[in-house]
Amino acid sequence: MDAIILQILNGLDKGSAYALIALGLTLIFGTLGVVNFAHGALFMIGAFCAVTLNRILTLSHQVVDPTRTDFLGNPMKVDVPYVFDMFGEAAGQSIIDWSVPLAILFAIPVMVLVGVIMERGLIKFFYKRPHADQILVTFGLAIVLQEIIKYYYGANPIPTPAPEAFKGSFDFGAMLGFDPNTIIYPYWRLVYFCFAALIIGAVFVFLQFTTFGMVVRAGMADRETVGLLGIDIDKRFTIMFGLAAAVAGLAGVMYAPINAPNYHMGMDFLVLSFVVVVVGGMGSLPGAVAAGFLLGILESFASMREVIAFIPGINQVIIYLVAIIILLTRPRGLMGRKGVMED
Amino acid sequence: MTKTNMSRRGVLKSGAVAGAGLAVPTIFTAQSAAAYTNEPTGSSVTLGFNVPQTGPYADEGADELRAYQLAVEHLNGTGADNGMLETFSSKALQGNGILGKKVEYVTGDTQTKSDAARASARSMIEKDGAVMITGGSSSGVAVAVQALCQEAGVIFMAGLTHSNDTTGKDKKANGFRHFFNSYMSGAALAPILANNYGTDRKAYHLTADYNWGYTTEEAVKTSTEAMGWETVAAVRTPLTQTDFSSYIAPVLQSGADVLVLNHYGGNMVNSLTNAVQFGLRDKLVNNKNFEIVVPLYSRLMAKGAGANVKGIYGSTNWHWSLQDEGSQAFVRSFGTKYGFPPSQAAHTCYVQTLLYADAVQRAGSFNPCAVAEALEDFEFDGMGNGKTLYRGADHQCFKDVLVVKGKENPTSEFDLLEIVEVTPTAQVTYDASIFGGELGACNPGT
């Protein structure tokens, strides 16, 4: 029982990331009809927003400390961050400590801008092209973005820790009356899950209860009619692209402390997120979210030692296996709508 | 009037015969001149540096390349100083190239993929005329390139490769490794672990699902079990895994009180970060502090894992903080040129280049068979690891192994590991036959 609860918890944070990326993918596919293979790269750029803000906050000037020597035996130059000069050492230290949550504010404008530039600069030229062309061009774009990040940040993962207050884990098992240490869960992953739930909720509220959201939903259902009503749907769709980019970016920012960001992390999530979208049903937002969590949890279960002992290698194929089964039994995915990608 | 009986056809025939006769000796001379692949005939000699310039180990590859460039400067006598040439026990090299030939180099990108690495090595041998190939940051790549060099008839001086197989079951007569291996890591680590954590421990292994992971798991398992530890479980994790939470969460439930991470590079950074996030190190299991062990450490990896490495034991081939003359000379050269201390990958690559050059100089020839003979059972010192033997039976270097620990209070971004013990060679030496494999005969090619 405790092992099951543990793996469900484990699946939640990974599922959160899948759900957030898949949500953006579905949003873009539903509104613009574009299969965006660069969406994983947006997640990665989000994580690097956290890295960048951390670097900005730790920008330092060097002070020579004559009491210590460096590795060559010369007097050691100690880096003193400018924020220490501005706010004092204690306040400066806590600003640096909270750089990941602060990066949310930094990432929103950056990601919206990246999204709008991507859409206006490249993707809009591919709206009327076949899906294969869209996949090729966005996949190419993903590789370009990846290489740019690698050029500036290197190939190694860059540790981006969560604030000190969220270090460590809490004993969930003890709360539920199990033995201590049986179900432990890191605080930051819990924060991530709550954050993801908040963002997903906000996106749904935005689409459901605002005029803008209503027009977008109408556009998703029947683009032509909305256009005939004199509404500039293209402009709204561009904004939607920016929004989807921001959602992926925020998923990346908050993911940075879970796994040190590296240039390749977007690709690792992209393929799985596509499976999530397909399993959830192309164009279905609730489907994307539900499938995200479902596959995240299943993946966790499949990597249990007992399960691997029973079916070796299952941890690497479970998601695809489930995708095949669902597509065979429900060809439109869990919550897919009729007519999407069937023309 | 005499009539010459020479027809047009006759002239042609005799011309052809004469031509062929003249040509035969040239063909024979050409063959006998090129006694081995890519024999250098001009005033320079070309070495091939095959390192990951893209892909997950690109930063490690970049450091290797820096070390190679430094080695070339020192060999040609064009550097700011002479680095380890001053401290190397063999004094055959004069700083005027190798056998008087200026050292030039070409580089290839292994991408940490065996096929890409073989393709770039082949190109350097066939197109650029490289007489020796060196480099690599993965055992899979090293084994593949070593086999290619054996077929092509050039020497392969392995870079960073830690699997037992490189000089074990996949060893080749043309291949040589200076870096240590999984067996040595296990043999060096186990006593330190037993001293610090006691002999009554239950270990849980997470192992990267490929060749190097298996040999490391095996080595650490065998040597810790010999000390009295019990292995509770050993779980294979996919090489592409980035989030290890679902593998780490069940560790505490298993009753284990030590987690051994047989991971390298990005895998290790992520699994260690996840383990620390789950608060494993703050736990008390079986009335003992829960501990984590990383059998193969590198400073570049420690940098990626940040503060998570504090207090964690592992082993390493070399570390810049070593105080011997050779290490200090190398750190000085490298640090002055590049502004930061070299990694263990840089060290082994630099040393391999010098060892090759020295062997050529002593053999008086670039012929791979002569070079191999000069390297076999060669004993040297002054290269940073104390007295070292290049064992002839398997072409593996035997030297001291460093047991290190993540530093609690680092003074700089490079000061991440502290040396806990220098395990003497005798303790990590094994019989050459235990891993199987055959060296075979050296192949001079052509």
What does this structure look like?
Chain A has helices at residues 2-32, 39-57, 82-87, 89-97, 99-121, 131-153, 172-176, 187-209, 211-221, 223-228, 233-255, 265-280, 285-302, 305-310, 314-329, and strands at residues 60-69, 75-81, 169-171, 184-186. Chain A has one domain (2-329). With 343 residues, chain A is mainly alpha-helical. Chain A contains 15 helices and 4 strands. Chain B is built from 13 helices and 17 strands. In chain B, strands 7-6-8-11-12-16-17 form a 7-stranded mixed sheet, sandwiched between helices. Chain B has a 5-stranded parallel sheet with strand order 2-1-3-4-5, sandwiched between helices. The termini of chain B are far apart. The interface between A and B is large, with 48 and 53 residues. Chain B: Residues 45-407 form the Leucine-binding protein domain.
Number of helices of chain B: 13
Total discrete domains of chain B: 2
Number of strands of chain A: 4
Please state how the strands of the largest beta sheet of chain A are arranged side by side: 1-2
Largest sheet of chain B: 7 strands, mixed
- SSE pattern of chain A, N- to C-terminal: HHEEHHHHEHEHHHHHHHH
Number of β-strand runs of chain B = 17
Assembly type of the chains comes to heterodimer
Task: Assign a percent range to the helix content of chain B.
Answer: 25-40%
CATH superfamily of the largest domain in chain B: Response regulator
Round the mean pLDDT of chain B to the nearest integer and report it: 90
Rough shape of chain B? Answer: globular
Residue share in helix of chain A: 55-70%
Q: What best-fitting shape of chain A do the alpha-carbon axes yield?
A: globular
**Largest contact between chains:** A-B, 48 and 53 residues
Query: Which regions of chain B are unreliable across 5 or more consecutive residues at pLDDT < 50?
Result: 20-32
